[in-house]
Amino acid sequence: MTDEFTTDIYYDDDADVSTLDDDTVAVLGYGSQGHAHALNLHESGVDVVVGLREGSSSRSAAEADGLTVTTPADAVSRASYVSVLVPDTVQADVYENAIAPNLEAGDTLQFAHGLNIHYNQIEPPEDVDVTMVAPKSPGHLVRRNYENDEGTPGLLAVYQDTTGDADERALAYAKGIGCTRAGVIETTFREEVESDLFGEQAVLCGGVTSLVKHGYETLVDAGYSPEIAYFECLNELKLIVDLMYEGGHAEMWDSVSDTAEYGGLSRGDRIVDETVRENMEETLEEIQNGEFTREWILENQAGRPSYNQLREAEKNHEIEAVGERLRDLFAWAEEEPTETDDESV
Ligand code: NAD
Ligand code: MG
Ligand code: MG
Ligand code: MG
Ligand code: MG
Predict the structure, then answer these.
(1) Annotated binding residue at 336?
(2) Does 172 share its domain with 232?
(3) Above 50 in pLDDT, residue 125?
(4) Residue 63 sits in the same domain as residue 180
(5) Domain extent for 284
(6) CA 135 to CA 166: how far, in whole Å?
(7) Are 226 and 119 part of one and the same domain?
(8) Is residue 177 a part of any domain in this protein?
(9) Is there a domain that residue 237 lies in?
(10) Where is the KARI C-terminal knotted domain (predicted)?
(11) Is 113 an annotated catalytic residue?
(12) The pTM is what?
C-alpha cells in the first residue's frame, strides 16, 4: 500500500491466491473478460469451472483451452465463488435463472462492472459476499499481460461483506488474474459505475466523437477538402492523445508549436465552453438519478430501436467513408488494428 494517494492501492504482496484454495470459482461467460479471468486463475492454481449455455459458441473455445465447462446453473452450484462475466444486459436474467437458485450462504458473488448491483437490477441475498474486481482494460490485454508476466491495473470494491473476508478474497482473485502485479485501486460500486458511465458518455466515446464530427463538418462546410479535414480533426487526434497519455497535458503542449499552444490555450475554452460543462452536469445527473440506466434497460426490452438507429446514422456519417478510403491509401494503416471492445471503457 502507498500513502501518497487518498485511495488505497494493493500490490502482489498484499494478496494471497491460496486464500481461494478451498474454493471453486465459477466464471460465467467466456468472452472478452471471461476467457482472460478463467485462464489466468486456472494458471494461478485456482480451481475454475466455466459456465456457458448449452449450444454457446464459446463452449468449444473454453474446452479447447483445457477448462471444465458446464451450464451456468451447474457451475454456480459447484462453486463457492461466482464471477459474473456475461454481458451487463443479460446479467439480471442469468442471475434470476441460473445464479440465485444455486447460491449458498457464504458464497461470493462477483462482478467486473457494478451496473446491475448499483441500479438494483440484481438484488443478492444478505448472506453472500458481493464484490467487484474490474480490470481497467479489455480482456484480451488482461490475458496477454498475464502471459507476459505483466499486470493489468484494476479496481476492487466490496458491496456486501458477510463472511468478513470479502476484501481478502477479492484481492486473491485480483492477484490470480494478474491485477495486483500492476496495482489495484479500492473503490465503491457507485463510484466505479457512475464514473465509468460518465467518462464514456461525456469524454471518451460520446464527447470525443462529437467534437471530431463538429470540427470536420465546420471545415468541410467552409469549403476545405474532406481529406484535409479528416487528417486535422481525426487522424492527428491519436498523436495528441499519445502525448497526453505519456506525460499529461504538459507534454502535449511542449511538443506542439508555440502557435498551436497559444491558439489552443486561448481558444479551447471558447469551443468547449460553460454550456458544455452544464451539459456534462446534466448528463451526470441522469446517471446519478438512474434515468440513463432506466432508458437503456427499456431500450433493450424494446429490441434496441434507438440504438440501431443511432448506430446506423454514425456509420453513415461522411467522415467514415473518407477515413476508410484514406486509411487504405496511406502506409500508416498497415499497422495492426488495435483491439477494441465496446464495453471496455
Ligand atoms: P462479452 O460480450 O465479451 O462476453 C460475454 C460472454 O457471455 C460470452 O462468452 C457469451 O457467450 C456469454 N453469454 C452471453 N449471453 C449469455 C447468457 N444469457 N447466458 C450465459 N452466457 C452468456 O462480455 P465482456 O465484454 O467480457 O463483459 C463481461 C463483463 O465484464 C461486463 O460486466 C462488462 O461490463 C465487464 N467489463 C468488460 C470489459 C471489457 O474489456 N470488455 C472491461 C471491464 C469490465
Ligand atoms: Mg455453489
Ligand atoms: Mg497542425
Ligand atoms: Mg511548444
Ligand atoms: Mg463502461
Answers:
(1) no
(2) no
(3) yes
(4) yes
(5) 196-334
(6) 18
(7) no
(8) yes
(9) yes
(10) 188-333
(11) yes
(12) 0.91
Domain count for the chain: 2
Distance CA 178, CA 175 (A): 5
Tell whether 243 is covered by a domain. yes
Sign of CA dihedral 210, 211, 213, 214: positive
Q: How far is the CA of 240 from the centre of ligand 4 (A)?
A: 13
CA of 201 to the centre of ligand 5 (A): 9
The 10 Å Cβ neighbour count of residue 312 is 9
Residues 152 and 230 in one domain: no
> Which ligand neighbours the alpha carbon of 108 most closely?
2
What is the whole-number distance in angstroms between the Cα of residue 179 and the centre of ligand 4?
37
For residue 125, tell me if it sits in a domain: yes
Q: Mean pLDDT throughout 78-94?
A: 98
Last residue of a domain, one of 136, 170, 187: 187
Are residues 206 and 179 located together in one domain of the fold? no
Are 166 and 208 contained in the same domain?
no
Give CA angle at 275 (272, 276), nearest 5°.
Answer: 45
Q: What is the pLDDT of residue 336?
A: 54
- From atom 16 of ligand 1, which residue's Cα is the shortest distance away? 86
Contacts 24+ apart (CB under 8 A), 136-141: 137/344, 138/32, 138/339, 138/340, 138/341, 138/344, 139/31, 139/32, 139/33, 139/34, 139/35, 139/36, 139/37, 139/341, 139/344, 140/32, 140/36, 140/339, 140/341, 141/339
